[in-house]
Prior knowledge:
- The protein is α/β, with parallel strands linked by helices.
- The protein has helices at 3-6, 60-63, 91-104, 117-128, 201-204, 206-221; strands spanning 21-27, 30-38, 42-46, 67-72, 110-115, 133-139, 185-188.
- The chain is built from six helices and seven strands, in the order αβββαβαβαββαα.
- β5, α4 (117-128) and β6 (133-139) form a beta-alpha-beta unit.
- The protein is globular, with a radius of gyration of 16 Å.
Amino acid sequence: xxxxxxxxxxxxxxxxxxxxxxxxxxxxxxxxxxxxxxxxxxxxxxxxxxxxxxxxxxxxxxxxxxxxxxxxxxxxxxxxxxxxxxxxxxxxxxxxxxxxxxxxxxxxxxxxxxxxxxxxxxxxxxxxxxxxxxxxxxxxxxxxxxxxxxxxxxxxxxxxxxxxxxxxxxxxxxxxxxxxxxxxxxxxxxxxxxxxxxxxxxxxxxxxxxxxxxxxxxxxxxxxxxxxx
Length: 229
């Protein structure tokens, strides 16, 4: 089903949805904000949490080669809150917002990168709404249910529960389920990604991380991601 046919408020179009900076749209009366940096093939990045602010996931090294679209998930920052807040932020609800965002970008295909809990969202999206995906990148795949886990690289967070809008557990298994993912997948597993300081590789080893993602893009498109100017 086309979500935009159900929610008329998503029909207003941004004349340049991939111009650098902040953008937003509304779905079912709830604001969804996202941020664009860089040039090249489009990669939509969904942060962890649920409830973590998007800024910790900035990847300047990748922005030299890819157009990075950082999702500011509903329930955090300047995006809207569900009426059931802090409950109701399920994988499928995040995926539905992703579908509308991707459709609004007006490109034929995008890569989808998810970190930690965001990797579970990305895998869910790839299994159920893969028609506009060139590939999926699942990074540091461990859910983070405690919004205050003390990790210095994960920035600010808001309280988002692990319950759906009916107060039933929205269970996320520790191991991301790759069965049924119909698009090329790059898995960067938890336990193999941090440098000696404990920082995530897009912060501690940005060039190496960027090279890994660029090679995946090159292999799945048949051409190299553009070099920086």
